[in-house]
Amino acid sequence: xxxxxxxxxxxxxxxxxxxxxxxxxxxxxxxxxxxxxxxxxxxxxxxxxxxxxxxxxxxxxxxxxxxxxxxxxxxxxxxxxxxxxxxxxxxxxx
Length: 94
Description:
The chain has helices at about 5-10, 20-35, 40-94. It has about 90 residues and is an all-alpha fold. The radius of gyration is 32 Å and the shape is elongated.
């Protein structure tokens, strides 16, 4: 109900927020407001980030392509084995 239980034991009530903790929030809010009012800077930052992250995106795309190629190769190998088994079974039946 707004009273710290430690205050009942004769201790002073602790502050709700530690000193200086709102500084990060204030700086964060100021940065957001600055960026929201300066779209040219935001677009420039976006371009810089896209150039910086291009190798990461290329690596991710290459891994995806390799995984798909491996999956296709595995399914083709399984199909060849199944066909060979069917041919061997039909040859043994004759």
